[in-house]
Amino acid sequence: MLDARDIRPHLEGLIEGAVRSAIQAGELPDVAVPSVPIERPKDPSHGDFATTLPLRMARSAMKKPLEIAEAVAKHLPADEAIEAPEVAPPGFINMRLSDVFLQQQIVRVIEHGPAFADMPLGTGKKAQVEFVSANPTGPLHVGNGRGAAIGDALAAVLEAAGYETEREYYVNDAGTQTDTFSETLYARYQQLFGRDVDIPKDGYPGDYMIELAQTLKKDHGDGLLRPEGERPPENLNQIGMDAMVGHIRESLRKLGVEYNVWFSERSLYAGEKVFDTAMAILKENGQLTEREGALWFTSSDLGESKDNVVVRSNGKPTYYASDIAYHYDKFVRRGFDLVIDVWGADHHGHVSRLKTATQALGANPEALHILLYQLVTLKRGGETVRLSKRGGDLITLDELVDEVGPDATRFFFLMRSPGAQMDFDIDLAVKQSNENPVYYVQYAHARLSQILARAAEQGIDASGGDVSLLTQPHELGLVREMLRLVDVIEQSATELEVHQLPHYAMALATAFHAFNDAFRQQSDSSLKVITDDEDLTRARLRLVQAAQIALARVLGLMGVSAPERM
RNA sequence: GCGCCCGUAGCUCAGUGGAUAGAGCGCUACCCUGCGGAGGUAGAGGCCAGUGGUUCGAAUCCACUCGGGCGUACCA
Q1: Which nt sits closest to A425, CA to C1'?
Q2: If DSSP codes are grouped into helix, strand and coil, which group holds residue A152?
Q3: How far: A460 CA to B14 C1' (Å)?
Q4: How much is the pLDDT for A101?
Q5: Which residue places its CA closest to the C1' of nucleotide B18?
Q6: Gap from A432 CA to B26 C1', Å
Q7: Minimum CA–C1' distance nucleotide for A564
Q8: How far apart (Å, rounded) are the C-alpha atoms in residues A259 and A198?
Q9: Which CATH code, of 2.30.30.60, 3.40.50.620, 3.40.50.150, 3.40.50.10070, is assigned to A136-270+374-430?
Q10: Is A308 helix (H, G, I), strand (E, B) or coil?
Q11: CA at A93, C1' at B56: how many angstroms apart?
Q12: Which nucleotide's C1' is closest to A495 (Cα)?
């Protein structure tokens, strides 16, 4: 029996074959057959799949779409996976999965386990998702949480699509802001010893810097103090930065996000000096020029609106230059086939020139995907709060996760497409936490688990259950929804759009609730999953097993927990 | 000024050029007291910001207008 993930190519083949048969039979003119579009009709009465091929062929075939549809449908061979096709005006061919096929898929899902809907799209390819990468000059804010949820889910989806995937955090520990950070930290540290010093004008005013200074005092006493007016000790920067990175790492861990690599910007300038290598390539290609005391990348030659400075007149490289070297490292040194940078929309001015630089380095710019998510607006008490790292009124990711919980935080962030600005109403999220969609989905998983637990208590072994006994609409409807995960993974991975996951999870949970409630609606208790009818019980238990696998899988892809009880 | 993102139900948002535009929350009326009620069914609620194109067909593509956000550094 056909596997669910092969159904689309299977249908394409059937239809293409039918078109050719119709042509051979002289019922259609001999024209080129376009690739077969397979759609999922919105209205279930139109079946599980549909093709609009007749509509697209109408012009070249010089025939009415409906006539083409009828000719094609007539030549579709009988197939065990689908029922006889139906033709609908103005020229659709609708196809419905057969009960036998759906029943068999239950067995398939159980056999394959969580990987049942995985797709071999990226087999043998290496992908990297770099996300959050906030400057380690302060705690993560709410917007970073959106990037974390998106990046982590995207990495999971790519893994499901067969890519060997790494999650990476780029630590900006080398720029100007780093110096400002340590100057601020040293000022706060000195203040703890009674010195009358101010933090720098462009410094970081947040209380967390005072706390960080206190930690330093606790760990090092006055060991980091220098005579008044002198520069701070060399290692202060590293100590402070390490502490901040540790803090960020902990915040992300609290959200359930773990990275494979924490990549230091500084490392680009040490050891093998990747930075020098990357710049040498640009220089060889004649794309560097000196002007006004600075070194410029002549990106306007490559279609950019202007040239960009890579090394300032003070000799320090720009952030842009680091990023060029960083992407050289990603593509050339580490050989990723697919590189995804997840950035906040405030970085979008940087997108085009980074792609240009990537191309100039000899890497394939098509392999670089920069996923921008629009900024998060925070609402508290009906008031809109702008997110700003330097502003006093920032709300940290930690605070949000503490209030809302990691599961709801992730689910909520994932529901919105990255391109949409979103309001995060904290009051609402807290107040209605019991009504948050995430609980609806998790509750479905808990119910599934409890049914299986109950069956286990009663010693029922479902392994031999006869799935052909499952013929009711709610039973097969649940199977249909389970199988749709194949589409969701494929599309999420190819379009890099993970916001489909929570929407799908809700639809799957709804299908299960409908299935479960269909039985309790009836006073006849023999219609539950576990009944006196041993055969039917075992068959339904298999369906429950499969549904649990599917639901746990989509929750797992989102990084949301799948509780067995709540 | 120029560039990018976005305008869809009261609110928050989905919607690969296809059939009667959907979900959650909120609202109304029912069902169910369960293998777990954090459940089910039904209903009200829409000039898909506007105008003009392309197409057999547009919420979707193109142009312009209006409204919101962001960017346009020898910051990151």
Answers
A1: B12
A2: helix
A3: 41
A4: 96
A5: A52
A6: 12
A7: B36
A8: 37
A9: 3.40.50.620
A10: strand
A11: 16
A12: B16
| One-character DSSP codes across A412-449 | HHHHS-TTS-EEEEHHHHHHTGGGSHHHHHHHHHHHHH
Closest amino acid to nucleotide B2 (CA–C1')? A305
At residue A305, the pLDDT reads 86
| Cross-strand pairs, A425 | A379
What is the spatial distance between Cα A95 and Cα A181, in angstroms, rounded to a whole number? Answer: 62
| Å: A157 CA to B4 C1' | 27
Query: Position A81: which residue type?
Result: A
Tokens of A495: 């379009």
Rounded distance in angstroms from the CA atom of residue A42 to the C1' atom of nucleotide B22: 9
Return the closest nucleotide (C1') to the Cα of A377. B69
Residue nearest B33 (alpha carbon to C1'): A520
pLDDT for position A390: 43
- Average confidence (pLDDT) per 10 residues, chain A, 566 residues: 90 93 91 88 90 89 90 93 91 94 96 95 96 94 93 97 97 90 94 93 89 95 92 92 96 96 95 94 94 93 90 94 96 96 92 93 91 86 56 73 90 92 78 77 93 89 90 92 95 94 94 84 58 86 95 96 91
Measured CA A114 to C1' B27 distance, in angstroms: 40
pLDDT of residue A386: 53
Report the candidate in A50, A37, A63 with the shortest Cα–Cα distance to residue A93.
A50
Give the type of residue at A553: R
Domain boundaries, chain A: 4-97, 103-120+436-558, 136-270+374-430
CA of A75 to C1' of B12 (A): 48
Taking the domain A4-97, which CATH number applies?
3.30.1360.70
Q: Provide the sign of the torsion angle of the four alpha carbons A190, A193, A196, A202, taken in this order.
A: positive
CA of residue A169 to C1' of nucleotide B47, angstroms: 47
Phi-psi label, residue A560: left if phi above 0, alpha if psi -120 to 50, beta otherwise: beta
* Strand B nucleotides with an atom less than 7 Å from a protein beta carbon: 3-7, 12-16, 18-26, 31-41, 56, 68-76
pLDDT of residue A423: 82
In the structure encoding, which two tokens stand for residue A401, read together? Answer: 């996760």
Checking each nucleotide's C1' against the CA of A513, the nearest proves to be: B39
Looking across all nucleic acid strands, the nucleotide with the smallest C1' to CA distance from residue A349 is B71
How is domain A103-120+436-558 classified at the CATH fold level? Isoleucyl-tRNA Synthetase; Domain 1 (1.10.730)
